Amino acid sequence: MIATFTRDDIIRYVYLETTEEENFLIEQTLLTESDLQQFYIEMLETKQDLDRPLANPSERAIQNILMYSRNFSVARTN
After folding, report:
1. Is 72 a residue whose pLDDT tops 90?
2. Is residue 13 within 8 Å of 40, Cβ to Cβ?
3. What separation, in Å, do the N-terminal and C-terminal C-alpha atoms of the chain show?
4. Which of 1, 13, 44, 62 is deepest in the core (most CB within 10 A)?
5. Helix, strand, or coil (residue 6)
6. Is the model more confident about 40 or about 74?
């Protein structure tokens, strides 16, 4: 059986949503399918870019969260 994978499968793989069997088959496919390999690399970079703001929030974002938290806790006690 020849497994064919789509870009959606590659996205699932990047986000660790595939089974061990799928992982093996996808990895084998990435060795031979240059278009999917390029897409995989692009998705890794995109995921890294999307994760970056979460890892290093701005001071403004932190202050906004703290202000919201203070206001929310005051509103709940009244």
Report:
1. no
2. yes
3. 65
4. 13
5. coil
6. 40
Distances (CA, A) of 72 to 18, 47, 77: 39, 32, 9
Contact 9, 19 (CB under 8 A): no
Count the residues in the chain. 78
Domain residue spans of the chain: 7-77
SS (H, E, C) 39-74: HHHHHHHHHHHHHHHHHCCCHHHHHHHHHHHHHHHH
- Residue found under tokens 């202050």: 63
Judged against a pLDDT cut of 80, whether residue 13 lies above it is answered with yes
> What's this model's pTM, rounded to 2 decimal places?
0.66
